[in-house]
Task: structure prediction
Amino acid sequence: MDHFQYRDGILYCEDVSLEEIAEAVGTPFYCYSSAHLKDRFEAYKRGFGKRKHLICFAVKSNSNLAVLNCLSGLGAGADIVSGGELFRAIKAGMRPERIVYSGVGKTEEEMAYALNEGIAMFNVESLEEMALLSKVSKKVGKKAPVAFRVNPDVDPKTHPYISTGLKKNKFGLSREQALYAYKKASTDKWLSIKGIDCHIGSQITEISPFIDAFRRLKDLIGQIEGMGITLSHVDIGGGLGISYKEEVPPSPEDYISEMVKEAQDLDKTIIVEPGRSICGNAGVLVTNILYTKENGSKRFYIVDAGMNDLGRPSLYDAYHEIRPVRQLNTETEIEADVVGPICETGDFLARSRQLPQLSSGSLLSVMSAGAYGFTMASNYNSRPRVSEVMVHGNRFHVVRKRETWQDLVRGETIPEEAC
Ligand code: LLP
Result:
């Protein structure tokens, strides 16, 4: 995390100390480095070189308007999975012709919205979805640009919850179904075939599964074009991993250069849908130790952020490095669990972690929290969602206000009829 470094013993995001932000906005808060977003996006771009491409940022990984706006300004498009994400992308200034729409459960209303906005293409995931999209297109009076998401049946060697390209997963169409879908779509005057799509999983730290999937895709493209159907785009999905602990994933530039090499004989625009590899290490979650306590041999740091703010440790047993915002002079480390205030045993940010001996009132920074952090946050235990801050050099901006208790009950009513 190049843009999060200690200076005189205090952790900084770019040129702003996290202590200063904590003082101004309170804790917990997410803090994003705009320089990191930019570096990672540019690395993707360099990988493509002169090759025709479209980098569609996966909005699900971080959907803050400031993040989307920053990336859109650099030329990014968006990979969306809901009408809400489309709304955000457009609000943040993303151009609809750079937006692709993935997901297995698009509704009629969402399809009509995306058609009216004029998105680049729908990544269709089932035959029933294709039929509905054609119906909606007719109603709207606009042809739908489509790609079919193919399930290449490769093992991305990642956590089972985030691997998506195996036969047993719910995503995409099998090879046989895809061939049938392309044939059918080619005779449907409300569908306009643009490309082919796949996405095999997330937090993938080797290039080989991507190459594997791409070769299978190429094979299929040959068969589809053999039926007289031309494809202008090939979407290789997202999924490149980041370093949370000791992983050494390829850089976006190396990964993309390899894919571009594989695509040498394909005269098509390459679309990629990265999320985590752009924003994961752009963000941290800063939290304050409320209490420390010991139960027998176990030591706990009870902090003001919980599983509702960052769900990854509880959901996937994911590792997030934890650093004290203010370094201590002592070398002594103790083993502690960093836990939140929520009434669940699964509410932890770290377990059995070697950490310096800290006292209540100390700030901790949960690292690598820029992807699937805030976007997966909830109001569980009626906890207002935290604020988000974006740093630009020596300035910071609150890009989402902390929710209030009033926000928690917005939209709720008590019926007059007595219980
Ligand atoms: N495209 C599609 C169709 C996807 O389903 C995803 C992620 C992406 C792109 C972006 O993948 P990325 O480049 O970020 O790996 N909540 C989990 C991750 C779920 C990923 C879902 N799909 C986590 O916190 O690890």
Notes: The mean pLDDT is 95.
